[in-house]
Structures
1.
Amino acid sequence: MKILFARVGYMKFYKGPKPGDERPIGGGAYNADEIGAEAYNFLSINGNVYGYFQPHMHKPYEINLGRIEKGRSKDRIEDVLVVWFATNPIDRGQVVVGWYKNATIFQAVQVPTALPLRENYSYYIKARAKDCVLLPISKRTFPVGHTLKGTKEENPGQANAFYLFDQRGWAKDLRKPLNRWIADVIDYVGNYKGESISSREDELEEDVSTTVHSSGGQGFQSDVEARLRIESHAMDVCKAYYRKRGYKIKDVSAVESYDLILMKNGEKRFVEVKGIQTEASSIILTKNEVDLSRSNGGKMVLFIVHSTVMGRRAVKKGSGIVLVKDPWHVNDKNLTPLSYIYRVS
């Protein structure tokens, strides 16, 4: 399989600077003052996206195609899976943020003159927008790299480009413990069934979800950190709740549109977990979450941890009140539209 792991800074949409999403976070010293071309990596232009990352820090700034496909000598390579990863704002670990399938990778940077929507920024990778997935923030949990103690070998380290072939042209053995994470990422991408931020509607839903956890004007990074911490806390509370009741639990939040599968006495149930700081008189639901409730009938559960208290950098221990709706049937009379998408052409 032809695959490239490419590290970029952390953004919400990668569709150019937007209020609250002005530039990549953790993209290196350059991003402290400049936007960085990766800010446009998921902007669809005439059905295509154009990806950029800094392969390395020394000239010539080229991608080693021979480490993607052994013996490759041409100036480009087609049908590559490109996995984009970035630093998680909470624990500083590396996580998958999205991917291109069937991508074309150019050895040298491409300098366009006719892509004004992305400010004519350079790119190395081109793919069809329909072959790309940008994960919502809550789904950016799948790790890149192993966690084996005592060695950093076979982890991306400080490199922005990570290949399946080494400098000698030898392929990595994915059966080895140090490399197993690579096979896991490939399986994850192939089996992913969750949401992708692809439309304007998806962007609005993501904005609403992040705003609910707003830190009061402290900026995108703080809002994202609060959201991830509160959602993680709610997941931990939910798992502990059902373990005490004798359920087997499978966390599928990384790959499905819901969060957990519960199994007990041959019965299977599906759980959507919500963590919020306010009282549970009302919650924000995405279209996908409403559809889930409607399609799964009596097997869907809504598990809410509300009134969660955030400290300066973490959720206050023991905070949060549990509310369970089981079974969860969305009542259309209780749904209130917050906004509409109006297509003017």
2.
Amino acid sequence: MFDRFPGEAKRALKFSREAGLRHGHDVIDTEHLLLGLLDVRGGASTRVADEFCGGSAAVREAVQKHIKPGTSASQGQIPFTPQAKRALEFVFHEAMSPAKQRPISLRLAPIIDGDVLLGLLQEPNGIAGRVLRELGLTTELAREFLDAPE
């Protein structure tokens, strides 16, 4: 499933696992995915955070207010929560959207870190989407910014 996550998106997933472990959690939730995105320096998600949310530091600070420290010492694979799984389903829908002008067939469209951000925004029960919306980011604003030519 994650072979469609090249470059920045793949690094964001790796960083999200590290964020979960760093907080002592034995699962990856939406807030860990968001922190992972913000760890990708220069990625699309950090540019969106800078443009609409007061920067990556402001997003991190807002996320930290919602994270309770865990006690897990897990070092192996850790599963995704149901909210994170739903957000990832939204990610796949974003990548396959007919509006995306990507050079690869829709069936094999690579997932970029902006797709992950959009998926997090669409998950109604996740901390990540709630924090981003509280900071003024909407799916529409993010999509418009991400789809605009650089």
3.
Amino acid sequence: MQIRRSLAPVFVMTTLAAAGAQAQSSYNLYGVVDLTLGSFQYSGTEAGTDNKRITKVDGNQMVTSYIGFKGVEDLGGGLKAGFVLESFLRPDTGASGRNDTLTSGNTVVKRADVFWGRASNVYLQSDLGKLTLGRQGNLLFSHALGYNPFVAAFGLSPTIRLTFGKWGNDKGDSGWSNALTYQTPNLGGFMATVQAQFDESPDDSEKPSYAVGASYVAGPFAVGAAWQTVRSASDPMLDLTMGQRQNFGLLGVSYDFGVVKLMGQFGKIDNSGYAGGARIETTLYQLGASVPVTKDGKLLASFGQSKEKAVEGGTTPDTRHSILTVAYDHWLSKRTDLYVAVMLDDEKLPGFKKGTTYVTGMRHSF
């Protein structure tokens, strides 16, 4: 009883202090969990693993699951300061990150995510715009997800799969470490952003990477474009070596007619300073639609295609990779939805066969 009496004043003071802090600051725990049950089959050779049909519980088909913490403090005069910490997770196994280290034979293809791999940054924001420092979403990735009906679905979106996904050729990942970003305020529907990733390489083997982007929204019409030059990479992507560079440009447009929202994208990736199979250029496009069919449900459809062509003596054969995904997404509430989807995957390479994936899943945000 005496212990409880002695702790009471401390509890009261702590509560009052917290209440005073909350008058100026706010802190949130949030995230999303996405799980599916499906039959998965991708384009590949019969002898390989991709074309083998596997029935399994899997995570992150409609969106990559994550947990996050964020806070913002009102500094007065219209100035705010904040932080964001976000970590990817795989809810089907409970593992952190998007994947373990990927290898091909004895060669590392992609490293495992760092723990705060989705975001780890601080920012200042005012009427003049927003300045963010640390690991954060890649500027071009935000344009990739902004003009396709499956948004950031690494499992189902043709755009994401053909750029930032397993079969994509982007070397910058969906997030940049050691990055600085400035975003203008909304100026009558127009916004612009510039971003830099500092290489921090003591031997100058890697150089800073840069990105610029702009978007304009006027009622049902939206258009956006982004360009990045990647000359350095950080986990989970492999480091670049001296002279390696990748340019990636992407244009997107959408128009919401009410009965249907149409979307389209066109992009191009070119590499320089690489040897062998990496000496390629990639052209891609995507056409998509979102159709409200009930008060709470939408039909989603997207077709994307990438074309790879060897340049400057590259060894990769000309390749055309097509993905078509059709899904129905039904929202039970503002935070929970159920979805079913079919994805056709067709990569035109010698010995490759088509693959068809069927999934049903549930996504819950908090």
4.
Amino acid sequence: MRINFRCSGGFGNLRLACDVDTDKLAEASADELSELIESAGFFELTQADFSETPYGAADLVYYYVTITDDDKRKSVGCNDATTPDRLRPLLTHLRDIALANSGFSP
């Protein structure tokens, strides 16, 4: 499975990114990511799962995720105000990976 993650925005205009290939991860790490994707129902998400950004919302962090698994491919974009609760653990985990890859720790 391949995962492309980007996030940007917020008060400090944070910019983070990571590309993950689960075939190149330790088994435990790959399993953890697979479980987060499954529990988020990532491939079943529809536009109806995302709220609208409230009027006047500022300093939001925007997230962009594309996951490819065999013949399945899905991309989603959301922000702090529109993200469904079930997707938050996956976004947090991917953000932590991107932070670690950038030399910072969460």
